[in-house]
Specification:
Layout: E1 4-6, E2 9-11, H1 17-24, H2 27-47, H3 49-54, H4 61-82, H5 85-109, E3 121-122, E4 127-128, H6 130-149, H7 157-174, H8 178-194, H9 199-219, H10 221-231, H11 240-251, H12 275-307, H13 312-336, H14 355-370, H15 379-385
Antiparallel strand pairs: 1-2, 3-4
């Protein structure tokens, strides 16, 4: 068989799609994601049993559900990673409009499940959170617009993407969901930065976000309560934050031992927002560092591979997705150790979840697609293909 060496990868004529996909896939990132999910299942055996007992369900009810949703998430991830970047771009644009409509209809058709924020659609057997699915397709949409703006006679993609950002933030704030709104701002800023935004402009965006935060503080009791709790010098030991900090402190370096932790019996969100407290108490600092290291590895590996990518859309979209994944993990971990105000946000692939797990499968599937080894044309060919003559 003739092998054609082209750029960074060997192209084999007539090679099967699955074979080419596996050969070009970043197996290190895939392995790290599998390990994170395995850790999540391990922690689920401890963290979700008290919840099942409180709800009069079988002890491992939520573990089985996490395994089911996790299997669905990985199936979605693998299928998405096999697609071409052009197909993901088209599906991402369509998906953005569908997710945006779902977001707009939340105040009418959504429910808050008694948590004070209307973020979900109740499907009976599960809950669907549109903002989780909105994030990855928002990144793809903005990356496509900014990449188009870089072409000769291209549309004003940067201005349009900013208008879309304002639209998304406005509807997220109505829920209210300031954490997801902040994630979209961070992802958009990362894309704009890589696209060549002036530092002065990004500074203005940061200042604007600060101004919106002050406005939200004075007009949203939900937001103000969380900020006040964060700024308070004392932590109420009877709050979720107080219990989480005590659990982390009790865990020490090696932890109290498997199934010996107490925080899971006290915290209502031990299986989701504060899963890292369960990990720290029962498995100690060693487990926490392992989780942090896996997220750091995924982020660094993806960014390194994207640095060699010459397709502007792939580089922008991949960077935005990487920053989105890493930022969500950082926020979840930061809240647990009181580096950030309390925010209901899951730890990707580790926390229990339905729509959050599947949406993360979509995000990581796109990321695996964008970081696959593919032929890179010579720089001269790349410039010519973009109209630079």
């Amino acid at each position: 068989m003739t092998e054609i060496a082209h750029g960074a990868v060997v192209v084999l004529p007539g090679e099967a799609i699955v074979s080419r996909w596996w050969r070009t896939l970043d197996k290190g990132v895939l392995g790290a994601l599998v390990l994170l999910f395995a850790i999540g299942l391990l922690l689920g055996f401890a963290a979700s049993v008290p919840l099942a007992e409180r709800n009069n369900l079988p002890p491992f009810h939520y573990v089985y559900r996490q395994a089911l949703f996790g299997g669905m998430a990985f199936a979605v991830m693998l299928v998405t990673s096999m697609l071409s970047p052009q197909t993901i771009r088209r599906l991402g644009v369509i998906g953005f409009f569908l997710a945006a409509v779902a977001l707009m209809l939340l105040p009418i058709l959504g429910t808050d499940f008694g948590k004070g924020a209307t973020r979900w659609y109740s499907l009976g057997f599960a809950a669907l959170q549109p903002s989780e699915f909105l994030k990855p397709v928002f990144v793809v949409m903005c990356a496509w617009l900014m990449a188009s703006a870089a072409e000769p006679d291209g549309p004003p993609g940067r201005a349009i993407s900013f208008a879309i950002l304002v639209f998304v933030i406005a509807f997220l704030a109505l829920q209210p969901d300031f954490g997801q709104a902040m994630l979209t701002v961070v992802a958009w800023s990362a894309i704009y930065f890589v696209a060549g935004a002036p530092i002065l402009l990004l500074t203005g965006v940061v200042a604007a976000v600060g101004g919106v935060g002050v406005l939200a503080y004075h007009n949203s009791e939900h937001f103000a309560r969380r900020i006040d709790g964060f700024l308070s010098p004392e932590v109420d030991p009877r709050t979720q934050m107080g219990y989480a900090i005590d659990a982390i402190r009790e865990g020490g370096f090696l932890g109290t031992g498997v199934n010996e932790g107490r925080v899971k019996w006290i915290l209502p969100d031990a299986h989701t927002d504060f899963i890292i407290a369960v990990a720290a108490e029962e498995y100690g600092l060693v487990m926490v560092l392992c989780i942090v290291g896996l997220f750091g590895f995924v982020a660094a590996r993806c960014l390194m591979r994207l640095c060699a990518e010459r397709d502007l859309f792939i580089r922008l979209a991949g960077t935005g997705l990487t920053v989105l994944l890493a930022s969500q993990a950082f926020i979840n971990l930061g809240v647990a150790v009181r580096l950030l105000p309390a925010k209901g946000m899951t730890l990707p692939f580790v926390s229990y979840g339905g729509s959050s797990l599947i949406a993360m499968g979509v995000l990581t599937g796109m990321l695996l697609c964008f970081t696959r080894t593919r032929p890179q044309s010579e720089i001269g060919d790349h410039l010519l293909s973009n109209g630079y003559r």
